[in-house]
Design a protein that fits this description.
Helix content: 25-40%
Strand order of the largest sheet: 2-1-3-4-7-5-6
Radius of gyration: 17 Å
Shape: globular
Largest sheet: 7 strands, mixed
Distance between the termini: 31 Å
Mean pLDDT: 88
CATH architecture of the largest domain: 2-Layer Sandwich
CATH topology of the largest domain: Alpha-Beta Plaits
Number of helices: 7
Low-confidence stretches: 121-128, 134-139
Order of helices and strands: EHHEHHEEHEHEEH
Number of strands: 7
Structural class: alpha+beta
Strand content: 25-35%
């Protein structure tokens, strides 16, 4: 299954914004919604084509509320994501999967702070209302993506993320145009 992840702009709650509007809510209604990261919304589709089609359906909302839309296609790579532009190029046959690995955007992934199930969360942590929803549901907060590092894969290896001290990273493959605008 192909995954689509919408990473919200810092000043909005992406889940609220997408589900509070009829057209985007209807477009997402057939999918099981996931929360892989703080202020992000993810769904599983049947193919890259279906993923691109969903992103096209949501375009008006993506421009207003989403910083980045990424796609994960297991037939291209198991652990890395593709930018929307790269997913479109793959779907259109403009690039072969083996040609997608050179240009990368690597996000640091900061571990989530545990949520107090009693709701006594720090008053300053209202940056993500999803955390309150997670606490009410008895789940944990989501990890947070932090500043991306643009790199080129060298000798088949992803260069080390060195902008912050993080235990994990998220790798997004880019088109050459996205890498060097």
């Amino acid at each position: 299954m192909t995954r689509v992840c919408l990473i919200g702009s810092p000043e909005v709650n992406v889940r609220y914004e997408l589900l509070s509007r009829e057209t985007s809510r209807e477009a997402l209604s057939t999918y099981d919604l996931e929360r892989p990261f703080e202020n992000a919304l993810a769904v599983r589709t049947v193919s890259v084509g279906a993923a691109v089609s969903l992103l096209n359906d949501l375009q008006w909302y993506l421009v207003r509320f989403v910083d980045e839309a990424i796609v994960q296609e297991p037939s291209v790579t198991e652990g890395e994501w593709l930018s929307r532009d790269l997913a479109v190029a793959l779907r259109n046959g403009e690039v072969e999967p083996e040609e997608t690995a050179e240009f990368l955007k690597v996000y640091g992934v900061e571990a989530a702070e545990p949520i107090d199930p009693d709701g006594d969360a720090d008053a300053e942590s209202d940056a993500d209302a999803d955390d309150a929803d997670a606490a009410a549901a008895g789940t944990t907060a989501a990890d947070r993506l932090v500043e991306p590092l643009y790199v080129r894969r060298t000798d088949g290896e992803v260069p080390e993320y060195d902008l912050r001290d993080v235990d994990e990273t998220l790798v997004v493959r880019l088109t050459e145009e996205e890498f060097s605008p």
